[in-house]
Sequence to fold (99 residues):
Amino acid sequence: MDIIMPKMGESVNEGTIIKWHKKVGDVVKLDEIIFEISTDKVDTEIPAASAGVLSEILVKEGDTVEVGTVVARIQSASETNVEVAPAKSEAEQVVDEKI
Fold:
């Protein structure tokens, strides 16, 4: 699955990758933050739209690309034979930390 630079507002045409939270080969859970972007309007974290393995990063940190540009690819769990659990909610994470 292609991960694209999202549109963050009506007049936003490009964004800069601030930081990758995952590296190639990492397992990615659905809705887990995979990278951060900065635009002229907002800085935000971008979650994964699907679970799998981050198979390719096409845009380096610090690079600016147009909205709609493919920045990375996730290989689905079914394609990799990797079992991926859904991301835990913040409440579940807090409970786990207290145990």
User: Anything to note?
Assistant: The chain has a mean pLDDT of 85. The longest helix spans residues 90-98. The domain at 2-98 is CATH 2.40.50.100 (OB fold (Dihydrolipoamide Acetyltransferase, E2P)).
